[in-house]
Amino acid sequence: MLKELTLVLANTSPDASAIAYYVAIIEDNSLGKRTRTTRQRTAKRLAELYALNPSCTIFRLLRHFWPTDPASQPMLAFLAATTRDPLLRDTMPFILSIPVDRVVLPHLIVAYLHERFPGRFQASTTLATAQRLASTWGQAGYLRGKVKKQRVKPYVTPIVTAFALVLGYLCGLRSRRLLDCLWLSCLDRSVSEVMDLISEASKQGWLTFKAAGAVVEITFPGLLTPSEEQAAYESD
């Protein structure tokens, strides 16, 4: 729902309250939906994926990074969605395992879903689920093409890298463990490429990065509130 998320963020202020997002979608129809029922359904799905609530740390951080670079927005939205959508998160190993330039056909995703989640999906819904996953991966930049989808590498920036790292940090990961977090693996980059991105993110002021031999320290000065820092510490 990248298009919808982009529109709703464009039509609300960065300090908007949670209710303001619902007003923008349902009452003001900022997304241009034809019926109130469709607006309500869209608001519900966006809230499921992104919270649309400034009291949610991940959404607050998403809004923090969002306006700085439009080219980073597809991956920022994708990473935020993976924190709240278990199916999207659990199917990431599949899309990352597909070689670049390989054609990704719907039946391959269907076969993976049946193998990975036996009995979870009915035959009538598996194809639709596979198509939605493919659409999401396409919007994020892992697939290219409308009909014939081909595996490509997503566009990743230092801003995206900083967001991926802070998501791991919020889960309590520190030092080298942070470099192994799920969201960093979603960047689909080699270790050396990731380290270059982290170094550049540090130079741009998104985080602080220090490395001496096997010791790695990554922190986010001023990014998290004291209560968020405490919650991240307790999740360690």
Please explain how this structure is put together:
The protein is mainly alpha-helical and 236 residues long. The protein folds into three domains: 2-55, no CATH class; 86-151; 158-234, Orthogonal Bundle (Arc Repressor Mutant, subunit A). The chain is 58% helix and 6% strand. It is built from 14 helices and four strands. A two-stranded antiparallel sheet has the order 1-2. It has a two-stranded antiparallel ribbon with strand order 3-4. α10 packs across α13.
TL;DR of this structure?
With 236 residues, this protein is mainly alpha-helical. The chain is 58% helix and 6% strand. It is built from 14 helices and four strands.
Query: Total number of β-strand segments?
Result: 4
Q: Indicate the CATH class of the largest domain.
A: Mainly Alpha
In percent, how much strand structure appears in the residues?
A: 5-15%
**Straight-line distance between termini:** 32 Å
The number of domains: 3
Order of helices and strands: HHHHHHHHHEEHHHHEEH
Shape: globular
CATH names the topology of the largest domain as Arc Repressor Mutant, subunit A
Oligomer: single chain
Helix fraction by DSSP (H/I, runs of at least 4): 55-70%
- State Rg: 18 Å
Instruction: Give the class from helix and strand content and strand pairing.
Output: mainly alpha
